[in-house]
Amino acid sequence: MFGPLSVLENLEVGGARVARRERRARIDELLERYPRLAELRRSRADSLSGEERQMLAVARALMTRPRYLLLDEPSAGLSPLLTQHLFESLADIRPRFGMTVLVVEQNAAEALAVSDRGVVLAVGRIALSGSASDLLDDPRMSDLYLGGSPAGAAGERSNGHLPGPAG
Q: Which of 18, 86, 105, 121 would give a disulfide with 23, using CB separation of 3.0 to 4.6 Å?
C-alpha cells in the first residue's frame, strides 16, 4: 500500500499490468465487494483505519487475479470484531475468485474457522497438520498455545501424531 496515494490510485497501481478496460472492471468489482473502500476511494491510504488498510491491501493484491494469495498476519492490530470481519471476507475469496489463500496467522482459531486445512508450527517445525475442523477440535492445540512442550511436537513421530503428555 502506498500511503500518499488514494484508495483508487492504489488499486490502479495494483492492476498496472492489467489491460486498462479490464483494470477498470476489476476496480469496479472490488469496490462493489468492499463498499467501505468505495466510500473512501479518494482518501489517502495513510488516512485509513487498520481494517480499511487491510481491505485495501487484499483488494490491491486481487487486482491481478493471482492464482495464490499469501497473507502474513492480516489480523495484526485489529480488534476481535474487525478480525472476525476480515476472516469472513477472506473465506469468500476462494469461491468467488477461484484462488488458493495461504494465511500465516497467530490467531489460529479465527484462521482455522474459515480454512479447509491448517498447519501448526512449533519452534519452526510442523507440530500438527490436517483439516481445519480436526485441528480446532484437537486438544493438543491448547497445549501448543498454552504452554505445551514444543520439543515434543518437533520430536520423532512414528505414526504421524504428536506424542502424548507423557512424551
A: 18
